[in-house]
Amino acid sequence: MKIVHFCSSDNGGAGKAALRLHKGLLQNGIDSTLLVIHKTTGEKGVVQYKRSLLSKVITHSGIPYRQNKYNRFIKLHSCDYECLSFPEAIYDISDSRLIQEADIINLHWVGSCLNYKSFFRKIKQPIVWTLHDMNPFLGIAHYMGDKEKNTEHFELEEKIRLLKRDAIHQNKNLTIVTLCDWMKRCSILSETFSPYEHYINPNSLDTNIFKFREKKEVRREFGLNTDKPFLMFASQYTTHFRKGSDILAEVASTNNFDCEFIIIGQGEPKGINAKTHYLGSIQDEEKLAKLYAAADAFILPSREDNLPNTMLESLCCGTPVISMPNGGMAENIQDGVNGYISKTIDAKGLGDAITAFIDNKDRFNNKKIAVNAHKKFAPDVQAKKYIELYTSLIY
């Protein structure tokens, strides 16, 4: 059984998730390849798509092919998107020998890297699409929040949504995988994916790296105070509105928490009125796992999210998560067991949840949190579910 995954990159949240699945399948004896446009790792089986010289020239020359036309439209109008994507690309991955020889093609995050119209018309093998956000069934937006706050682009949003819907509906041999029940419900309710079968299979991670460690030991390693509570916040881009760092800053400014903050990611959030250790981006997973273990709790204040890798990483390290009542967070966090869920998506709700945690932090069993998370998010657990799905589609 030959599986080819396609993702725009092997880095970033979705890229790392796709890479972890790919590695889990390899460990289970599956012939798996991860095809990407932007390759950043030297991992086995990760292949960069070889773009033609013409596509490279057009991309860098500013020649007004259709995608550039859309991008110019956005630049000419005021807009506020965390990310936006179009269903066209100057290259066509369906011409890749890897794609042509695959038994199953597993799509991941494909923003502006997939020519929908030709891909879904040409591909005859079963397609599995793992949804890392809402973009596959929206238009140019990746989450509803961006769609709703950019009402001036509704016409373009709807035009692209319908174009994608019609392109996807050319193909009947498509199965949708979501990371949590919330995304499954959103997808099933969409006009684009309502005709297709849906399955839930969460992301995984290396549980030999993201594991329980003694807090005092890792704190001494980083030169951190061994007695004061530490709250950690991490995101690839910490200042994105959807990720809620402004909510965290408001909480820190209006509550007198006797704690320190560890901040990881691109862009230092402003306005956190407390002692803060800003560490920038960290690619070393071993170091990252130790920092999770050093923290008393991980703060995940996202206004809207799917199943963030950061939550899985924190739980697998035995560190409780304090988050918002949405997405995969609300489905995986139990108050007083492995964290707290805010009652509302605002500073007051988050502040109350942090207060509840600080008042009860010594009651949490960090080893048990890690053990339970490993049972849900270990690579073998995810890989075996995918293998079962793949097998059902081709045999």
Automatic annotation (TrEMBL):
Presence of the UniProt keyword ATP-binding in the record: no
Record-linked SUPFAM superfamilies: UDP-Glycosyltransferase/glycogen phosphorylase
Signal peptide: none
Keyword Transferase attached: yes
Entry keyword set: Transferase
Pfam families: Glycos_transf_1
GO molecular function: glycosyltransferase activity
Gene source species: Pseudoprevotella muciniphila
InterPro entries: Glyco_trans_1
Coiled coil: none
Domain Glycosyl transferase family: 215-362
Protein name per Swiss-Prot or TrEMBL: Glycosyltransferase
Recorded superkingdom: Bacteria
